[in-house]
Amino acid sequence: MNLKQLSQLLGLSQTTVSRALNGYPEVNAETRERVLDAVRRTGYRPNRAAQRLATGRAGSIGLVMPTAHGYPSDVHFGEFLAGLGDEAVRHDFHFVINPSHPDDEEATCKRLVASGNIDALFIAYMREKDPRVALLKSLSVPFIVHGRSIGIPTDYPYLDIDNTAAFHDATKLLIQLGHRRIALLNGPAHFAFAIRRKRGMAAALAESGLTLDETCVQHSPMTDEHGFSGMKRFLDLPEWPTAILCSSTVLALGAVRALNQAGLKIGSDVSLIAHDDVLPMLKPENFSVPLTTTRSSLRSAGSRIAKRLISRILKLEILPEQELWRAELIVRASTGPAPHRAGRANERSAG
């Protein structure tokens, strides 16, 4: 199907259909949605070269994907990418994904923008005093950051969840249940979300006159194996923690495996709370003991970021430049009152 046939099908002029597809503001939202719906039904694809000449736009969003030999893949990134795709397909936008060594991301961003193949740029995995922010602000394309850096002004477009509040609330719940020795299985220490989650936990403990024992903290990639090895290390401490906070349900999967191997009952011997990114293959309610979680959908965040970028590119609507989402605390069976005494894991292994 070509543009002429599509316009005849809709009973609209070719100019109106073309303007709707190219995001011209004078085409009302109802007409644009009608055209996009017909595009989805008929499989029509505009001539990208002609579209670019007419509008000066590439119809693409750029993403830099850090990767290198030995660098762990991340299921969380895949779920976020699915959310970006949900919104991008509604507007016939493409992705340009540029793999990059983690130490070369700034240069990769520059090359991606210089190529002229993208209209906007997205980055994630924010770090303390992240140098990519200044770079993005110096480039000629719109951008959005998923997360927020630490130690630099927050004067750039972002979408983030309130990681500090999420882990503060989770820790407070555990303290209210009588837990005093609480451990943390966290993401890599250089990521801003991990720093904020640890701060939120430490603040809640301090409010009750408690301190975070660094021997009860692990920073690692958020994988099942790291959750398992971290939990085993905690159980080998002279006084093991009665409660665990996990920065991902993937880490929690490994932690639960270690607790099961030790013969400990989740929710009574040890309480566990995980952050739930709403990963479709790892639902907290389907664990052997349903997990208490702080929940915020990565897919929804991806969709929102794509909506904001595309709206800015096509001048569809004015949306907030900065958004901080509150995570939802959902209490399930994995949290319960603190046991009367710790150390039984060692006693059991010795007996």
UniProtKB/TrEMBL annotation:
<dbReference type="Pfam" id="PF00356">
    <property type="entry name" value="LacI"/>
</dbReference>
<dbReference type="InterPro" id="IPR000843">
    <property type="entry name" value="HTH_LacI"/>
</dbReference>
<keyword id="KW-0238">DNA-binding</keyword>
<protein>
    <submittedName>
        <fullName>LacI family transcriptional regulator</fullName>
    </submittedName>
</protein>
<feature type="domain" description="HTH lacI-type">
    <location>
        <begin position="1"/>
        <end position="55"/>
    </location>
</feature>
<dbReference type="Pfam" id="PF00532">
    <property type="entry name" value="Peripla_BP_1"/>
</dbReference>
<dbReference type="GO" id="GO:0000976">
    <property type="term" value="F:transcription cis-regulatory region binding"/>
</dbReference>
<keyword id="KW-0805">Transcription regulation</keyword>
<dbReference type="InterPro" id="IPR001761">
    <property type="entry name" value="Peripla_BP/Lac1_sug-bd_dom"/>
</dbReference>
<keyword id="KW-0804">Transcription</keyword>
<dbReference type="InterPro" id="IPR028082">
    <property type="entry name" value="Peripla_BP_I"/>
</dbReference>
<dbReference type="InterPro" id="IPR010982">
    <property type="entry name" value="Lambda_DNA-bd_dom_sf"/>
</dbReference>
<dbReference type="GO" id="GO:0003700">
    <property type="term" value="F:DNA-binding transcription factor activity"/>
</dbReference>
